[in-house]
Amino acid sequence: MTLPEIAWKRCNELKAKLSPDFLCVMIAAQKLNWFRSSASSPRPPDYDLHCSFDCSTSKFGIGQQEGTNRTPLGLHRIKEKIGDGESPDTVFKGRVPVGTVGEVPDPMITCRILWLDGLEAGFNRGGDVDTHARYVYIHGTGDESRIGRPDSHGCVHLRATDLVNLFDAVPSGTLVWIQE
């Protein structure tokens, strides 16, 4: 498996600096593919599939608009990482730890948060399509039995073990491509 050609073409069009790690969310497959490059200045052929995780994207489908609870497409970066050092069963509200899965009713956001920032003006950045302003994250969920099928409110859900490994390894600024 290789990095999708459209992803690196979009990076080139936007003059986005390639990061050593590159995450690709494949909505149709409900997979998050993690690519890595050992090159100091990576180019698309330098990326190899490091691992692949089952994920869940929006049960409302694909979309950019504010208020739709849909998963946005396109090129993003991890802007903020939240939850370093917290227990994997930590529940977050407003990006603040408020307890654990067993203590908090309806634990929607758990474990860690990778807050995404869109890089494509007018598509997933700015106005009413801004991924960051929509609070779109890669995060854990209180019900991991639903991973692998659309179930979120626009975010990308991962299992806690997968998310902790990813969170600990990739820095802020890592590119994230989301496609159908």
Protein architecture, described:
With 180 residues, the protein is mainly beta. It has one domain: L,D-transpeptidase catalytic domain-like, CATH 2.40.440.10. 11% of the residues lie in helices and 32% in strands. The protein has two helices and ten strands; from the N terminus they run H-E-E-E-E-E-E-E-E-E-H-E. It has helices spanning 5-14, 160-169, and strands spanning 21-26, 31-36, 48-54, 74-82, 90-93, 96-100, 110-118, 137-140, 156-157, 175-179. The strands form two sheets. An eight-stranded mixed sheet has the order 3-2-1-10-4-7-8-9. The longest helix has 10 residues, at 5-14.
Question: What layout of secondary structure does this protein have?
Answer:
Layout: H1 5-14, E1 21-26, E2 31-36, E3 48-54, E4 74-82, E5 90-93, E6 96-100, E7 110-118, E8 137-140, E9 156-157, H2 160-169, E10 175-179
Parallel strand pairs: 1-10, 8-9
Antiparallel strand pairs: 1-2, 2-3, 4-7, 4-10, 5-6, 7-8
What attributes does this structure have?
180 residues; single chain; mainly beta; L,D-transpeptidase catalytic domain-like; 2 helices; globular; 10 strands; eight-stranded mixed beta sheet
What's the short version?
This protein has 180 residues and is mainly β. It contains two helices and ten strands.
The CATH homologous superfamily name equals L,D-transpeptidase catalytic domain-like
The CATH C-level class name: Mainly Beta
Measured between the Cα atoms of the first and last residue, the distance is 16 Å
Major sheet, described briefly? 8 strands, mixed
Instruction: Summarize the amount of helix as a percent range.
Output: 10-25%
Strand order of the largest sheet: 3-2-1-10-4-7-8-9
